[in-house]
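Lab manual, section 2.4: Encoding a predicted structure.

Procedure: take the sequence of the chain (385 residues), apply the prediction step described in section 2.3, and record the output as structure tokens. A sample record is shown.
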Amino acid sequence: MFNKTEPPQPKKPLKNKQQPVGAVPTKRRSPLALLRFYLPQRYHRPVIRTLRRFRTTWAKNSGDWKWLEGRPVSLANLNRSLWRGSNPSLNYYTLLFLSGVISALGLLAGSAATIIGAMIVAPLMGPITGIAFAVSMNNRRLLKRSGMSLLTGAVLTVLTAYLICETLGLTTLNPEITARTRPTLIDLAIALAAGSAGAFAKTRRDVADALPGVAIAVALVPPLSVVGIGIAMSSRSVTVGSTLLFLTNLAGIILSGGLVFVWQQYGSLNRARRGLIASSLLLTILGIPLGLSLRKLVVEEQSRTQISHLVRDYMLTFQGTDIQSLSVESDPDRLIVDLAIAAPRDTFSESQIRQARQFLAAELDRPVELNVRVFPVREFSVPAE
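Recorded output:
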């Protein structure tokens, strides 16, 4: 019989205590377990069934190749590596300064190979990846350290390019510089893909060789060098355009890198919610000018193709001439067409150019400003003796 005076026995803890609904799993789980956790039953069951069938079929046909599978980096090693890459040390600033020198000189010289070398040397990918990891882990200390390294490194790169441009006294904007002053949504897509590749390479031991390719693809230092060149040349359009390109690369890498870290179970959506929302808002704001720039680029390219076809095939004025270049710039109220033609003197008259402009405006159904530059060509023919 139960003795009423006996003290109640403490309850034994449950061995397999279930987590409350909505809790974030604390252990590293397989992708199938994550699907079971986050998706309702009617959604995750057919997906898991299909994945299991595919895995079984693949195992039968390919054999046991576990030694070839990629091994993830442990959380401690990844954290240590990103802290080391985000440290504003003497090595970091030395490499960044040399990268800025190479980038600025390559931009001013118009050398694509030199600019690519500057991308490989630059260590800016370290603190940016550290920011993405700090967002996924909600690590404020790493976020402050990485942010300070990125800010001081960006200022150093801009200042280096400014001093070099002022010292050399060059004032010509070559295609390598102007190409980094008109970012579009294409550059945003590149930044998102490069950020995903960089974060994934950091979490895998056997794909670290992909990091130089990521640095080349995202091109972090050249836009900062163009900012310094634009300041030295007092060009507002160059400075604003290159700054927009750098911010696009920065926001894209942080957002996609943070999502990849969460996907690889380094952190959680609950921890990364604030950082991912801030990155998404920044990309949304940047997407407006990027979309407008892409639309303008598409309009100019379509107009250039159409104008080239009209000039070469339908306009008698320019037939038989050597057209050196044809460029089109789109304004809200007109198209600005620049033609460079190699021809003898007095080949064209002002009335002929005016008629050509009227023809283009009628065909394109839009006001056109036509600028024609004629380079004189002199021919000498010496008969044989």
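Check your result against the sample. The CA atoms of residues 255 and 278 lie 9 Å apart.
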